[in-house]
């Protein structure tokens, strides 16, 4: 595949931008191809600098649930921009977006808008610490909550233990306040509470884990976390930055019927522009400044253009209740088709999915946690990824990333994808045979 222009752009970018990209996973470091530099997107498609066209299953890493350049979203952005780009003063659009979120999620009585998922999770943990007067929090191995210091923590080997930073620059003192347990392991979480009675402010969890592929909660897991937090006086935070709006009309919390104290949003809520949000119980959110003493602020928070885009996406998404069914049906078709193609080629592979997010794992074993995800065949993934890209299908360049469907992905796109997948799985089988 000719990548001349993308490779030139990458060389140029590397002179001034670390690694040539503004977020690490874009660099395609774990796969053979250079990252295609994108020039435009429309509907389900992307076009790169070398003129290749791809069916896009990354969707800007989740936000683009309507696809690229949706007319309603473009109109909202243009209209808002025409009235000015930023005021640093309240606008009606922010109120409308907050009301929409509170309307959709019964657990969210009040909400604060920020500029990214990272800001949302950092702020939610601050609220939890502020209202409980405790410092420590629990996160799960393989869950990603943005790049805030306290979240960049891996578990020590074996039993869950005090966090060890997974990046230089995270102070040991910060890491010491992050406790980790394997995902889907209620007993390990209970043990952390037993070891730290009265010390844990919050449990933060991706109710469907989307940063180690797509890992649904085991039956009773979220309920168990809910009961544990209630019993021990800790705040339960659902990080729905990715699962939000993707796991059904009320996201993961509605789908699994478990009510968190606080929820964080990002990705879809901004419709492709930078918006994040955190919200929940009024009792807690009313402690946020200036209503209360817990400080959190942002010069561009609630930016009128970003808010207009987010609102347009949510209004379009909820304008027809069958939209969520369509996403789910499309995902069913894609997943069963991929599994059939893999089986026909004799490749060990299965898809895990919830709503419009999913992940294909090169393994026959179901993935419940990060260790399971790491046991899948990474080489097979790399071969598959390259073969799909060459056939016009753009997947995230990492076996630990989810794929996303948008309302712009129709039967034609899915059928093209499955045709490409048959050949790609054959390439995997051929390569495995020579290994
Ligand atoms: C993407 C993501 C974040 C971080 O959001 P950014 O907007 O990239 O800062 C946080 N939590 C989860 C679950 C995510 O998937």
Provide an overview of this structure:
With 435 residues, this protein is an alpha/beta fold. It has two domains: 4-68 and 321-433, Alpha-Beta Complex (Aspartate Aminotransferase, domain 1), CATH 3.90.1150.10; 71-317, Type I PLP-dependent aspartate aminotransferase-like (Major domain) (Aspartate Aminotransferase, domain 2, 3-Layer(aba) Sandwich), CATH 3.40.640.10. Helix content is 39%, strand content 15%. It is built from 14 helices and 16 strands. It has helices at residues 4-16, 71-82, 92-104, 117-132, 172-175, 186-195, 221-232, 251-256, 282-285, 304-318, 322-345, 370-374, 378-390, 411-433; strands at 38-42, 45-48, 53-56, 110-114, 136-141, 153-154, 164-165, 178-182, 200-205, 235-239, 262-265, 276-280, 350-354, 357-361, 393-394, 403-404. The strands form four sheets. A seven-stranded mixed sheet has the order 4-12-11-10-9-5-8, with helices on both faces. It has a four-stranded mixed sheet with strand order 1-2-3-15. The chain has a three-stranded antiparallel sheet with strand order 13-14-16, with helices on one face. Helix 11 (322-345) packs parallel to helix 14. Mean pLDDT is 95; it is low at 155-161. It binds pyridoxal-5'-phosphate (PLP). Pyridoxal-5'-phosphate is lined by residues 116-118, 121, 144-146, 206, 210-211, 239, 241-242, 266, 276.
């Amino acid at each position: 595949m000719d990548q001349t222009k993308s490779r030139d752009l990458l060389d140029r970018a590397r002179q001034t931008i670390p690694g040539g990209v503004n977020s690490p996973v874009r660099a395609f470091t774990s796969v053979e191809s250079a990252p295609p530099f994108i020039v435009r997107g429309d509907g389900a498609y992307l076009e790169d600098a070398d003129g290749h066209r791809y069916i896009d299953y990354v969707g800007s890493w989740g936000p683009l649930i309507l696809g690229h350049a949706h007319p309603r979203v473009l109109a909202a952005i243009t209209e808002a921009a025409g009235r000015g780009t930023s005021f640093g003063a309240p606008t009606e659009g922010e109120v409308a977006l907050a009301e929409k979120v509170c309307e959709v999620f019964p657990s969210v009585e009040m909400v604060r808008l920020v500029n990214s998922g990272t800001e949302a999770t950092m702020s939610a943990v601050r609220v939890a610490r502020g209202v409980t007067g405790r410092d420590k929090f629990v996160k799960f191995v393989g869950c990603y909550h943005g790049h805030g210091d306290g979240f960049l923590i891996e578990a020590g080997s074996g039993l869950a233990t005090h966090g060890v930073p997974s990046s230089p620059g995270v102070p040991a003192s910060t890491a010491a306040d992050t406790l980790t347990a394997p995902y889907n392991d209620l007993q390990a979480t209970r043990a952390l509470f037993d070891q730290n009675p009265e010390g844990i402010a919050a449990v933060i969890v991706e109710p469907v884990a989307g940063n180690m592929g797509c890992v649904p909660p085991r039956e009773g897991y979220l309920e168990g976390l809910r009961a544990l937090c209630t019993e021990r006086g800790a705040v339960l935070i659902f990080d729905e930055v990715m699962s939000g709006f993707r796991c059904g009309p009320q996201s993961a919390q509605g789908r699994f019927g478990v009510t968190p104290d606080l929820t964080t949003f990002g990705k879809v809520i901004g419709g492709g522009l930078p918006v994040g949000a955190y919200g929940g119980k009024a009792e807690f959110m009313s402690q946020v400044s200036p209503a209360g003493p817990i400080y959190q602020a942002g010069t561009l928070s609630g930016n009128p253009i970003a808010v207009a885009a987010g609102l347009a996406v949510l209004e379009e998404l909820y304008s027809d209740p069958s939209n969520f069914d369509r996403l789910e049906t499309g995902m069913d078709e894609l997943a069963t088709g991929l599994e059939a193609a893999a089986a026909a080629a004799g490749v060990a592979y299965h898809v895990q999915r919830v709503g419009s997010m999913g992940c294909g794992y090169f393994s026959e074993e179901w993935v419940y946690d990060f260790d399971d995800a790491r046991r899948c065949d990474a080489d097979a993934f790399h071969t598959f990824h390259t073969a799909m890209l060459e056939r016009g299908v753009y997947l995230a360049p990492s076996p630990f990333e989810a794929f996303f469907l948008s309302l712009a992905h129709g039967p034609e796109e899915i059928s093209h994808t499955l045709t490409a997948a048959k050949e790609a799985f054959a390439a995997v089988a051929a390569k495995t045979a020579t290994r």
